[in-house]
Amino acid sequence: MLSLATDLDALTRFGRALADPIRCRILLALRQAPAHPSDLADALEISRTRLSNHLACLRDCGLVVAVPEGRRTRYALADPRLGHALDDLRTAVVAVETDRTCPDAETKGCC
Question: Which of 53, 55, 60, 92 is the most exposed place for a label (fewest CB within 10 A)?
Fold first, then answer.
């Protein structure tokens, strides 16, 4: 059984990752399939530098992993259960309140 401190740490890291809209978009994209940074940057319409900073944050949080593939690196969710958690969280929030927005939607910062 995990300790309360471990549970709090895990939820805090997950919450911080979700606090940024770009990191949310990255996690949702990786929920669909692993991807290379160049493909993610193009799909999300952000610079590769900006994407790289967010991927580093998500790696540091333990939510994504970098998988070397020859000269390239592919990113994936660190655990398939994260994809299920994202789906559950998204549908739970939508089911509870569909007409709400977060006043701090542009929260900055990293894990």
Answer: 92
